[in-house]
Amino acid sequence: MLFTASTLLTMALAQSVSLGKTSNAIVLSIDGFHQGDLEYLIKNSPNSRIAQLAAGGAQFTKAKTSVPSDSFPGTTTLITGASPKTHGFYYDVAFSRNFYAVGDVNCTGPIGNSFAYDESIELGTNSNGDSTRLDGGCESGKFENGCGININALPFKKVDGKCVPWFPHNEMRVNTVYEVAKANGYFTGHADKHLAYDFVNGPSGNGVQDLYTPEISYYSNTLANVTTYDQLHVDAIVNWIKGNDHFGASVAKNNGFIVGANFQVVSTQQKITQYANADKAMGGYLDAQFTPTPLLAKAIAQADEFVGQIIDALKACGKWDTTLLVVGAKHGQSPVDRSGLKLLGDSNLNLLASNNNTIPSDAWATTNDDNALIWYRDPANAAIVCPILKANAATLGVTPAEIYCGADIVSLFGADPATDAKVPDIAVLPKAGNVIYTKPNNPKKNMEHGGASEDDTHVVLVVGGGPVAAFKGQKFDAPVNNAQVAPTILKAIGIDINQLQGVAKEGTAPLPLFNAGGNGNVYTSASPVAQTTPCDIPVATTKVPSGNVYGQSKPTTAAEYGTNVLSGAVVNSVSSVSVVALLAAALF
């Protein structure tokens, strides 16, 4: 076996440097953030907080997401240490061959139906109430026990002879890092974008001690609104660092905290076009070298500001030295180079997938972004449609080789639709990631995710914090996967990684941050440290009362959107003008 000089250096350093004592972990997903974005940021803004985090920690230059690269499988992979074949999520809007239809409360209809675990299941959606509600219908602001989820919008399943509504967490097949950490005396928290992220609780339904999932959908059309929304997630994290829940109330003493959150500011401004943007500005990139448009540059600066706030809170609370801070992305975004972009719409796809509308509409389903996944109630239909799709591949903007079915599907996902109710029968995966099945006229998106292209899957992965200080910016150039994050956290805090069922099943290894002196799957130099350090950091409450958190039905300005009716404070969308200027200086 041949090794490059870079690989040999990495191996030598990995043997001589190892992780320090760890009591806490924070995992941040800057959705859509590529490794190329990090490299651009380091080159053009070396003093940015994310660049400095990479310079003082460890950087994994070939990190990959799950395939499909959608938010649901991407998040689930991060928290379970497993791939979709094991954890069971392929998409948020999908199909299961053992589900009864939404509303089939007696489970008497045909089995095998589509489902949607997105904002449509909330009590506060357009069909059920007020879509402007940040609480999504969970008036208490305690996003637990299915609060705010409309059971009449859920699929149904037979369990022990009973027909029951099937919540997102019910569909988790393996446990999560939160469930394992909580069982071992750690505080757990997670902040995300929809109430459907109930699934991060794991199959127990209560793995996250403090779940915070305000609804973003109505507020994603301007940079100012998304920034202020993401600030809520930052505020929750700062409260967790302080030893509080997201309301700001103290929590019981524990061995440490294991928490996670996502930020939407980059992803939304990558996708958005002037047709969908109230600011009438174009998102995305200017070239194939990850040069952001002015709008996206500001969004990246905002994400950098968020990371900076969290770093500052850790240091102010005396927890930097014992906290792993992971900055990654549950999905990328494609295509970075718009020159070959094809906006095809989904009419041809649907016509072909339905065999010219001869398959009943409730007997099949497709979900599509810059990919397409297709399921059938009757597997015989897949055998019929597959050659039709391949013969018409050009109309879908792909080659026949980019359409997977039969043995190719089994090879792609490592699971067989004939024996697994969730595995798609057919997948259309444009290799270049340059096809989006959205409206070709007046398009609202110029980027998407969900596929298997380089831009979809090659994401940032930086591990910072005091425990990795000895790595001093070391780059690991060997391929790694986001599934390795969860076992890394457990090993760092001294818990057997095989307590994660997905890790035990797939044999997922931690990231190479441990030297050969460890004790198997348990890292012996780590030990729980009771978190008693007091700190006093001003932070806006993130409580969500009835209706809109800000007491308004439709915010119109950033300042109005940021006024918290509980405290009268204004949540600053950016606390440092210099941070926003980091990228702007390189672009304007």
UniProtKB/TrEMBL annotation:
* Pfam families linked: Phosphodiest (PF01663)
Which domain of life, per UniProt?
Eukaryota
Cite the GO molecular-function annotations of the record: hydrolase activity
Matching entries from Gene3D superfamilies are given as: Alkaline Phosphatase, subunit A
Q: Which InterPro entries match?
A: Alkaline_phosphatase_core_sf, Phosphodiest/P_Trfase
Give the protein's recorded name. Answer: Uncharacterized protein
Query: Origin organism of this chain?
Result: Boothiomyces macroporosus
